[in-house]
Write a structure and sequence with these properties.
By secondary structure, the protein is of the alpha/beta class. The chain has 14 helices and 10 strands. The protein has an 8-stranded parallel β-sheet with strand order 1-2-3-4-5-6-7-10. A two-stranded antiparallel sheet has the order 8-9. Helix 9 packs across helix 10. The relative contact order is 0.15. The structure holds L-rhamnitol and zinc ion. L-rhamnitol binds next to loops. Zinc ion binds next to loops.
Length: 422
């Protein structure tokens, strides 16, 4: 039997099995096909960027691994991402950082960045028919002083970074305009203290004032939407970060911004899944950085595990799909980087599919009736339902490889393209 026919017959069996539980697989696939994930540029080159070739990362971020073939230039990164896209079903977005600016001739520092440094990215995204998202870059720069940017005691230094934030929001709006798709411009800063601070208030109040200067001008939400990303701790900032969860939650609610929940930014056993329905009581929309911390905020490639499934379940079962902007945030330099993109994105899609295929109506009914036995029994039964057959069928009908066939494509790309890089 040809592969497609085999996948289709497995799908038909699965469809019947799900129908017995009141689950409509066709509706699930229809939903899944429309979920766009914002895929991060920085997995492709170990968060290097192109603004300052050979620069070091630091400032709270660390990438480990020496896998050969990383993208050394923006054109290489684009080609690699195009290869990843061919192996990921659906239509997605690309999430750039300001440090991925490309200069032809004179360079501008981050406080004076303009959309011209991103023209090639825009033209490329337009040709691919995808939207762009954006991130302000407050790391890997000499003006990160003593680990601080927007909360630094020096007003001139803060001003530099405020101007960076303003420029990035303008660039985000230009992306939105050029691509006819609103850009999410995210802000994360590395500011913090390695050891117990004497003053927790000062940096927070300075950060608040800096943020108010960055966000003084409202964006047209049809072009650009803004989000702020909290973090509890970081490398070299183990004891204190001014931009903690409470700080930014209050900021986002009071200033009508989005909040970005990053799965690696909390205590090691604290997931973000349970935060979604809480925060969405107060904010119309949030953004996610789906990531995987192993013992710390290590940004491992996202795998299909309990934490990821809990996030997907909350979004889907809470009917929040239209209010959560899904993005990925991880960087592993120890494996093929195109594979890392494909793996993490497909895993998030699989988790969303499993959530869409869950017999949630029956589960909610059992819960409302106080029948927690049925709730638990059905939840456990659902774990072995044939979601894999539905996923394979989805990949196939979307014109992307089903099962692990994508890996052969990555290996071919590695030997013909990546292995030739110095
Ligand atoms: C850092 C934040 C931030 C970065 C990217 C590169 O802990 O998660 O989102 O990972 O901006
Ligand atoms: Zn993040």
């Amino acid at each position: 039997m040809p592969t497609s026919a085999r996948l289709e017959s497995a799908y038909h069996q699965a469809r019947e099995r799900y129908a017995e539980l009141g689950v409509d697989t066709a509706a699930a696939l229809q939903h899944l096909a429309h979920i766009a994930i914002s895929i991060h540029c920085w997995q492709g080159d170990d968060v290097g960027g192109f603004e300052n070739p050979g620069g070091t990362l630091g400032d709270g971020l660390a990438v480990t691994g020496q896998y050969p073939g990383k993208a050394r230039t923006a054109p290489e990164l684009r080609t690699d991402f195009e290869q990843a896209l061919r192996l990921i079903p659906g239509r997605h977005r690309f999430n750039l950082h300001a440090s991925y600016a490309e200069f032809s001739g004179s360079r501008t520092d981050r406080d004076a960045l303009g959309v011209d440094a991103f023209r090639s990215w825009i033209d490329w995204a337009k040709a691919l028919g995808i939207g762009l998202d954006f991130n302000q870059t407050y790391f890997a720069h000499p003006k990160v002083v003593g680990g601080s940017t927007l909360s630094h005691p020096d007003a001139a230094l803060r001003r530099f970074w405020i101007d960076h934030g303003i420029r990035c929001r303008e660039i985000g709006a230009a992306f939105g305009q050029a691509l006819q798709s609103p850009c999410l411009t995210n802000l994360w800063i590395p500011d913090g203290m390695k050891d117990t601070p004497a003053d927790r208030r000062g940096p927070r109040e300075r950060l608040l004032t800096s943020l108010d200067a960055i966000y003084a001008q409202r964006s047209d939400p049809r072009l650009n939407v803004d989000s702020v990303e909290p973090k509890l701790f970081g490398i070299g900032a183990e004891s204190y970060t001014p931009g903690s969860h409470e700080f930014y939650l209050g900021y986002a609610v009071s200033r009508s911004l989005l909040l970005t929940l990053d799965a690696g930014h909390y205590h090691p056993t604290e997931g973000i899944a349970d935060k979604i329905s809480a925060v969405l009581c107060y904010l119309p929309e949030i953004a996610l950085h789906v990531s995987r911390g192993v013992r710390w905020d290590s940004d491992h490639v996202v795998t299909l595990g309990d934490d990821l499934q809990a996030i997907a379940n909350e979004i889907v079962h809470g009917r929040y799909l239209g209010r959560v902007r899904l993005g990925l945030d991880y960087f592993d330099a120890s494996i093929n980087r195109v594979a890392a993109w494909v793996l993490g994105t497909r895993n998030l899609q699989k988790a969303l599919l499993i959530a869409l295929l869950s017999p949630i109506q029956r589960l909610k009914e059992a819960e409302l009736a106080g029948d927690y036995t049925t709730r638990l029994a059905l939840m456990e039964e659902a774990k072995l339902l044939p979601a894999g057959a539905v996923w394979d069928y989805f990949c196939d009908t979307q014109g992307t490889p089903a099962g692990h066939a994508w890996l052969t494509e990555v290996q071919r790309y590695e030997s013909t393209v990546l292995a030739r890089r110095g």
